[in-house]
């Protein structure tokens, strides 16, 4: 949404233009008005102004001087000079200024509207062009790097599902320019840096860049790799052979990786004073098994490395904590995915993920404890959400969440979790609708009680702590009517009520509904009702 400010010391012109543009494009153009340059600068200090439609010849500060001040507040603001002066000096000075147009008052509303529309079109094009120009090679590379990292972290969350379709992965890798082959297995390496104490965020970032450079130096000849920072702040790499060894993920490549990690350790310790601990997979991993292998590496890192140390650990797929294979860890990654879906209100995704988690848990017939742990992990998550959202008493039977023995079977227990989750989502939707309705009701009440005051979109946004553009969209979405149209309806309604009192002058009625000039109110009232205020009053006396 763009914001237009109309400035003229003649109120009949200011009010007339305000009425014209206020209905011109309410969803695209927010209109404000000022009766002096000083008042216009007040608007400039309160909110972003995109276009100023101003007279040149005004008492105090004239339009040319105002335009110079405008550039200090909003350099991108466009100025349209609207004046009755056709002298060469005014026109010449206006034409010499950047982002400025010049229109004579004698050319009429049509010309003014066309000029403002042309400025809006120019701004749209300029915005589009600037976005294109900003996509320089350096920025594009930075974006691609972030997108690659986000995508690979996305795969780590749920590789069994996301890596199921090889064709999709090939397309995604191509779009993101990921230099790995999704059709070939991948070797995984997890690295933990022991940062010196007291290092700031930027200093840690510089250390990470140095480690990345060392990695590229040692691996670029023999391996294709991609590194990311995982959610715990550790380095995580994906590797595949390149050059002559491309396509051969044999035991020698694993030994090559392990040996090279030793060299990187020594290099970083000698040149940077950094200690790095590595954990790597003992064999290449299929893409759909990423999540499981990643979790195993993390567990090994925690168990073997502890707080750090220059150590290299290979995952030999031996059982951890007495459990074997697939059951060697709880599904913590799934739990985080579930929590994210719950917090963001993504109903379908949460229930689908919960169904899969429940199915996996119920298959763990050989390990009842993991099934119970899975149940309580989800139950605690739902219980916590109910507490934060203040839903106690609104979710049926929520008290059974932490009482697994209340359920006759594990199947029934997970079915209960699903019902509670559905109730939470339904309650959240109801709360959001109620909250939106309450906010809109407050805005409507304020408008009805302050019709004689400033009811600009900017002012209403300030009072209710909204962004002006968002407030406009939000009100239209909830009420089904533009905010400006609602204000006009309220003004017409109150004006009709006041006109029933013959002792009140039209001027007094106009002031009460926000019009300082009686002629502007008359024009507004007739456009809304088809009658002037006096004609409407006369019809009342006939009844």
TrEMBL record:
<keyword id="KW-0804">Transcription</keyword>
<dbReference type="Pfam" id="PF12833">
    <property type="entry name" value="HTH_18"/>
</dbReference>
<dbReference type="Pfam" id="PF00072">
    <property type="entry name" value="Response_reg"/>
</dbReference>
<keyword id="KW-0597">Phosphoprotein</keyword>
<dbReference type="InterPro" id="IPR001789">
    <property type="entry name" value="Sig_transdc_resp-reg_receiver"/>
</dbReference>
<dbReference type="InterPro" id="IPR009057">
    <property type="entry name" value="Homeodomain-like_sf"/>
</dbReference>
<dbReference type="InterPro" id="IPR018060">
    <property type="entry name" value="HTH_AraC"/>
</dbReference>
<dbReference type="InterPro" id="IPR020449">
    <property type="entry name" value="Tscrpt_reg_AraC-type_HTH"/>
</dbReference>
<feature type="domain" description="HTH araC/xylS-type">
    <location>
        <begin position="441"/>
        <end position="539"/>
    </location>
</feature>
<protein>
    <recommendedName>
        <fullName>DNA-binding response regulator</fullName>
    </recommendedName>
</protein>
<keyword id="KW-0238">DNA-binding</keyword>
<feature type="modified residue" description="4-aspartylphosphate">
    <location>
        <position position="55"/>
    </location>
</feature>
<keyword id="KW-0805">Transcription regulation</keyword>
<dbReference type="InterPro" id="IPR018062">
    <property type="entry name" value="HTH_AraC-typ_CS"/>
</dbReference>
<dbReference type="InterPro" id="IPR011006">
    <property type="entry name" value="CheY-like_superfamily"/>
</dbReference>
<feature type="domain" description="Response regulatory">
    <location>
        <begin position="3"/>
        <end position="120"/>
    </location>
</feature>
């Amino acid at each position: 949404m763009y914001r237009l400010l109309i400035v003229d010391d003649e109120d009949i012109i200011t009010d007339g233009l305000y009425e014209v543009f206020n209905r011109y494009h309410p969803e695209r153009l927010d209109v404000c008005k000022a009766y002096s340059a000083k008042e216009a600068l007040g608007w400039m200090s309160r909110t972003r102004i995109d276009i100023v439609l101003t007279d040149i010849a005004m008492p105090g500060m004239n339009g040319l001087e105002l335009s110079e001040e405008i550039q200090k507040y909003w350099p991108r603001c466009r100025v349209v000079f609207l004046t009755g002066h056709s002298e060469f000096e005014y026109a010449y000075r206006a034409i010499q200024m950047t982002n400025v147009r010049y229109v004579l008052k004698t050319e009429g509303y049509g010309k003014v509207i066309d000029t403002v529309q042309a400025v809006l079109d120019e701004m749209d094009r300029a915005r589009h062009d600037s976005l294109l120009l900003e996509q320089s090679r350096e920025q594009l590379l930075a974006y691609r790097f972030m997108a690659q990292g986000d995508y690979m972290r996305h795969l780590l969350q749920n590789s069994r599902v996301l890596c199921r379709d090889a064709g999709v992965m090939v397309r995604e890798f191509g779009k993101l320019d990921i230099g790995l082959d999704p059709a070939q297995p991948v070797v995984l390496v997890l690295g933990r840096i022991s940062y010196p104490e007291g290092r700031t965020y930027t200093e840690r970032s510089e250390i990470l860049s140095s480690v990345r450079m060392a990695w590229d130096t040692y691996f670029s000849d023999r391996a294709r790799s991609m590194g990311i920072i995982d959610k715990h702040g550790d380095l995580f790499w994906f590797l595949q052979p390149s050059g002559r060894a491309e396509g051969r993920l044999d035991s020698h490549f694993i030994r090559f990786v392990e040996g090279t990690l030793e060299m990187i350790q020594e290099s970083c310790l000698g040149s940077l004073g950094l200690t790095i601990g590595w954990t790597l997979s003992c064999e290449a991993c299929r893409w759909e098994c990423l999540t499981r292998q990643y979790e195993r590496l993390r567990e090994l890192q925690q168990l073997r490395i502890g707080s750090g140390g220059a150590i290299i650990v290979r995952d030999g797929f031996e059982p951890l904590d007495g459990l074997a294979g697939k059951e060697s860890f709880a599904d913590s990654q799934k739990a985080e995915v579930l929590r994210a879906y719950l917090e963001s209100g993504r109903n379908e995704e949460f229930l689908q993920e919960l169904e899969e988690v429940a199915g996996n848990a119920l298959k763990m017939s050989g390990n009842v404890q993991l099934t119970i742990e899975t149940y309580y992990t989800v139950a605690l998550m739902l219980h916590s959400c109910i507490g934060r959202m203040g839903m106690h008493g609104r979710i049926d039977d929520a008290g059974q969440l932490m009482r697994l023995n209340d359920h006759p079977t594990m199947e029934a227990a997970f079915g209960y979790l699903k019902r509670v989750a559905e109730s939470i989502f339904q309650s959240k939707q109801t709360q959001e609708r109620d909250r939106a309705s309450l906010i809109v009701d407050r805005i409507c009440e304020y408008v009805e009680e302050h019709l004689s005051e400033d009811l600009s979109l900017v002012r209403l946004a300030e009072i209710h702590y909204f962004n002006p553009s968002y407030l406009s969209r939000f009100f239209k979405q909830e009420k089904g009517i533009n905010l400006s149209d609602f204000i006009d309806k309220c003004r017409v309604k109150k004006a009709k009520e006041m006109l029933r009192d013959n002792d009140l002058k039209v001027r007094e009625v106009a002031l009460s509904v926000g019009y300082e000039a009686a002629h502007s109110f008359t024009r507004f009232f007739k456009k809304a009702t088809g009658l002037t205020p006096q004609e409407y009053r006369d019809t009342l006396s006939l009844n």
